């Protein structure tokens, strides 16, 4: 008897009823259990596990990689190929490394870069105090190590700083201007300094000056009543035999006469220029937060003193009036205020620097023999360039726009006046001429003109002479400089003992590399005579201007750093408000 049902897997389900008894089925089940309990050998297991047609085949071996199971044969083959490839690549690399390479040598530095490196060495030769080991001027040594301490009225160390020129006087007014110029050049052309390997050198040069200036007043105070303006004396009264830095002709290392310190209590021009110098240096050293803040604090104290204690530092017939007479302090207010704004971002300094009355007092609206001449005495032109940059790059708008636009226009006029077609300045005959006025001249025209002026200094002139010592084959050999003109031979030449070296017609025994001498007269004439300082003396301020011009013209690329100068300036306009929160029903 059979019953048929439906197999859910697709076939008929048949239930059969046979004649076997339950006891028979039980005995059969016991036999099956015994068979299952017996251990199977490997062959039997393979028969049971093998699928149809697999019997007789060789079993494959596999490698378990954790996340992947692969054939052992494939795994071994792959690893072998990778090892062979690695060995081959190593052999190729070794052969390539063993082959001698012929690199194309870097191009030689251009003339301006060569001159730049030399011009920076002049500041090493002018250092006063305990010299660093890397000063690299073999004929210089420690000097004037008692400055300030030997003056009972001062009684504190004023060691350090720079000698102004061929003597050993430290005039802070032109020295501060020199350091401001050098800082400005670094702020705009640090990439160029770094490219020629001189960034560390120029930073050390600036820091040497800044550290000394911090000694010349109480730099930790918020309010001061005096500033050191000069160390040493250059007075030369007729018939006077008093030993000083002009009467004597001595190496700075041998100076044994008293060096007086001169302080001022109302010297707006000096204090504002020193403030500008420290403010500009604070931007150069913004990567050193503590030192930069120290410089900013000193600059703030100095500028406050300059504004509250009005007066010219050179008034009263002092040494300063004879050598570096200041004609006014209004231009230093514009110049110093501009640098203070760039160093602090405090808008009160910008408001001062752009005040119309201050511009009027500084001479922005009238001409004169010094209009457009940027020098240690006249900073208006430099301040106008700084503020024109501010207008071009940041566009501060109202309430500064009117005076900034005026300064920008005046800067353009001054730039045109430098070109030889105008008769504003005395110049030699060999400079080419351009036209200005209604015609537009690209910036390259002005750069070409600047290039001709520096090339003239470096030797492209009627005398074929370089006016930078150590540059080229022909340069001045009798520089008006005490240290360079006296041999370092172990002999101590006293105040008058060094006069013979001043009078000799022989070349200086020491080459003061990088010194730009005063240069030729208006007829391209030059006399290489040591006693004639109008031709052969070099100064800090002159060389600072030379360094700034050389780095601007050196190397490739004309662009300036537009970010560093304004790194402390906050956004000119308020930030837009944040977007509203998403609307929720």
From TrEMBL:
Coiled coil: none annotated. The chain crosses the membrane at residues 74-96. It is an enzyme of class 3 (hydrolase). GO terms for molecular function: cellulase activity. Belongs to the glycosyl hydrolase 9 (cellulase E) family. Keywords: Carbohydrate metabolism, Cellulose degradation, Glycosidase, Hydrolase, Membrane, Polysaccharide degradation, Transmembrane, Transmembrane helix. The keyword Hydrolase applies. This is Endoglucanase. It catalyses: Endohydrolysis of (1->4)-beta-D-glucosidic linkages in cellulose, lichenin and cereal beta-D-glucans. It comes from the Eukaryota. InterPro entries: 6-hairpin_glycosidase_sf, 6hp_glycosidase-like_sf, Glyco_hydro_9, Glyco_hydro_9_Asp/Glu_AS, Glyco_hydro_9_His_AS. Residues 113-550 form the Glycoside hydrolase family domain. The keyword Transmembrane helix applies. Its EC number is 3.2.1.4. The active site is at 480, 528, 537. Pfam families: Glyco_hydro_9. GO terms for biological process: cellulose catabolic process. PANTHER family: ENDO-1,4-BETA-GLUCANASE (PTHR22298).
């Amino acid at each position: 008897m059979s019953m048929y049902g439906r197999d859910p897997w697709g076939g008929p389900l048949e239930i059969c009823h046979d004649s076997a008894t339950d006891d028979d089925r039980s005995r059969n089940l016991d036999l099956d259990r015994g068979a299952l309990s017996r251990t199977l050998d490997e062959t039997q297991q393979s028969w049971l596990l093998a699928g149809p047609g697999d019997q007789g085949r060789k079993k494959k071996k596999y490698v378990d990689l954790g996340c992947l199971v692969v054939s052992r044969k494939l795994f071994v083959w792959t690893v072998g190929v990778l090892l062979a490839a690695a060995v081959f690549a190593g052999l190729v690399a070794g052969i390539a490394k063993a082959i001698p390479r012929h690199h194309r040598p870097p191009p030689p530095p251009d003339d301006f870069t060569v001159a730049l490196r030399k011009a920076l060495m002049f500041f090493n030769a002018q250092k006063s105090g305990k010299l660093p080991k890397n000063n690299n001027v073999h004929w210089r040594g420690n000097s004037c190590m008692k400055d300030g301490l030997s003056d009972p009225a001062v009684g504190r160390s004023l060691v350090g700083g720079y000698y102004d020129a061929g003597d050993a006087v430290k005039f802070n007014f032109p020295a501060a201007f020199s350091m401001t110029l050098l800082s400005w050049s670094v702020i705009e052309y640090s990439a160029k300094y770094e490219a020629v390997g001189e960034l560390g050198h120029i930073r050390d040069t600036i820091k040497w000056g800044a550290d000394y200036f911090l000694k010349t007043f109480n730099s930790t105070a918020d309010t001061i009543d005096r500033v050191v303006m000069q160390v040493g004396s250059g007075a030369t009264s007729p018939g006077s035999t008093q030993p000083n830095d002009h009467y004597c002709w001595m190496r700075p290392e041998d100076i044994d006469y008293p060096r007086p310190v001169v302080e001022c209590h109302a010297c707006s021009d000096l204090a504002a220029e020193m403030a500008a110098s420290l403010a500009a240096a604070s931007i150069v050293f913004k990567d050193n937060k503590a030192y930069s803040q120290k410089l900013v604090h000193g600059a703030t104290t100095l500028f406050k003193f300059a504004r509250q204690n009005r007066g010219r530092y050179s008034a009263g017939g002092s040494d300063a009036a004879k050598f570096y007479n200041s004609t006014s302090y209004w231009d230093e207010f514009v110049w110093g205020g501009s640098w203070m704004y760039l160093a602090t971002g405090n808008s009160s300094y910008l408001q001062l620097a752009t005040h119309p009355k201050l511009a009027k007092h500084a001479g922005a609206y009238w001409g004169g023999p010094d209009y457009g001449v940027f020098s240690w005495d006249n900073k208006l032109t430099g301040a106008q360039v700084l503020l024109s940059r501010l207008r071009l790059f940041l566009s501060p708008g109202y309430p500064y726009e009117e005076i900034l636009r005026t300064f920008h226009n005046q800067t353009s006029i001054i730039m045109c006046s430098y070109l030889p077609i105008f008769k504003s300045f005395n110049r030699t005959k060999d400079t080419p001429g351009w036209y200005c006025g209604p015609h537009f001249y690209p910036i390259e025209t002005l750069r070409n003109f600047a290039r001709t002026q520096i090339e003239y200094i470096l030797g492209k002139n009627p005398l074929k002479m370089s006016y930078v010592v150590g540059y080229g084959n022909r340069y001045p050999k009798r520089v008006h400089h005490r240290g360079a003109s006296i041999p370092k031979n172990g002999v101590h030449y006293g105040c008058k003992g060094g006069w013979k070296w001043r009078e000799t017609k022989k070349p200086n025994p020491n080459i003061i590399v990088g010194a730009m001498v005063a240069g030729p007269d208006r007829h391209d004439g030059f006399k290489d005579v040591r006693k004639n300082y109008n031709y052969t003396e070099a100064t800090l301020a002159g060389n600072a201007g030379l360094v700034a011009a050389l780095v601007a013209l050196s190397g490739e690329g004309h662009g300036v750093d537009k970010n560093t100068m304004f790194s402390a300036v906050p956004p000119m306009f308020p930030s837009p408000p944040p977007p509203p929160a998403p609307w929720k029903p």
